[in-house]
Design a protein that fits this description.
This protein is of the alpha/beta class. It contains 10 helices and 9 strands. The protein folds into 2 domains: 151 residues, SPOUT methyltransferase, trefoil knot domain (Alpha/beta knot, 3-Layer(aba) Sandwich); 57 residues, Orthogonal Bundle (Trp Operon Repressor, Chain A), CATH 1.10.1270.20. The strands form 3 sheets. The chain has a 5-stranded parallel β-sheet with strand order 2-1-6-5-7, sandwiched between helices. A hairpin with a 2-residue loop joins strand 8 and strand 9. The two termini are 30 Å apart.
């Protein structure tokens, strides 16, 4: 898989995308993550990528030309499964989307910034708009990093124990059950006896009950699906 991220703040992404599982996946050749500075695709000598919005609204808007130049340059080299724009008013990102995207070959993620991007980009160049919640960030760089992490960790071989990812929260529309480790007792706080019993069927039954209880209590909306 190859992920190309277009941004005006590449320094925000360089460190997060080169550590932990993301670094291991790249070192293993499972994925390529490329960060592209949008200013490199400008024709303006000052490398300007924004301008005032028509209509007199406050804030600045990312211009269409450098974004079109960047996306067009990348599309000349390969086909892309999705061209994603990170936007507060996009489709809410979830585990199901991450599962689907983890099987893609090539993705572009365009990080929003300022007041947003010229809407013609969204109309003609973007194939999917993604949000991580009903709030506004300074830019889409952190969102791009989160989407990348969620996708890459699902690629076979990225995590040492692939079953670990399959048992995460949201994989089956349930929150994950509680987890414990050694010591089995600390300050009088004990691990549930069933987890120490060695009886796998009972352990699985306990985990399912706990997952259902936690989902019903904390995220009942998941059960509606």
């Amino acid at each position: 898989m190859r992920i190309d991220i277009i941004t005006v703040l590449p320094e925000m992404l360089e460190q997060p995308l080169n550590c932990s599982i993301l670094k291991k996946a790249q070192d293993k050749g499972l994925t390529e993550i490329h960060i592209h500075n949008l200013r490199d695709y400008t024709t303006d000598k000052h490398k300007r990528v924004d301008d005032y919005p028509f209509g007199g609204e406050a804030g600045m808007v990312m211009q269409i030309e450098p974004i079109d130049n960047a996306i067009s340059a990348l599309k000349k080299e390969r086909d892309y499964d999705e061209i994603i724009y990170t936007s507060p008013d996009g489709e809410q990102f979830n585990q199901k989307m991450a599962n689907t995207m983890s099987s893609f070959e090539n993705i572009i993620i365009l990080c929003g910034h300022y007041k947003g991007i010229d809407y013609r980009i969204r109309e003609h160049l973007i194939t999917r708009e993604i949000s991580i919640g009903d709030f506004v960030l300074t830019g889409g760089e952190l969102v791009a990093a989160m989407i990348t992490d969620a996708i890459v960790r699902l690629i076979p071989g990225a995590i040492g124990d692939e079953q670990s990812a399959l048992s995460d929260s949201f994989q089956d529309n349930l929150l994950a059950p509680p987890v414990y480790t050694r010591p089995s007792e600390y300050k009088g706080w004990k691990v549930p006896d069933v987890l120490l019993s060695g009886h796998q069927a009972k352990i699985d039954e306990w985990k399912l009950k706990q997952a259902l209880e936690r989902t019903m209590r904390l995220r009942p909306d998941l059960l509606e699906d």
